[in-house]
């Protein structure tokens, strides 16, 4: 069974997608989202079926609620919990372009999808994602202007 994109690939995709919004979301939000971008792959640690129970928007919502309450308890601004939803959603969006089908709307739909554009272990895609995402983060965190 094919695994998901590697850690740098998911972190880079998250940074690339969210960095232009740093002026509105803040550096902390985007940095946390990059960290949380690997959360769906907790299934590999738990040794449960990969991309089944943790690669869907239900998992994104439940995780966001969990971190909302954890952040509240820890005195961290609760709005930063939305970085979890953003990170998991971007993880799902990226994985849908790989070869392995999975159900992103589980448990409401068991329809499995994959656009089969690239293999998840494609080193060029993973490295390119990380490099571009890192450049975008440095640019926008350093005060660069979004294009809108």
From TrEMBL:
The keyword Membrane applies. It comes from the Archaea. Pfam families: YdjM (PF04307). The chain crosses the membrane at residues 12-36, 57-74, 80-102, 123-142. Keywords: Membrane, Transmembrane, Transmembrane helix. This is Metal-dependent hydrolase. It comes from Archaeoglobus fulgidus (strain ATCC 49558 / DSM 4304 / JCM 9628 / NBRC 100126 / VC-16).
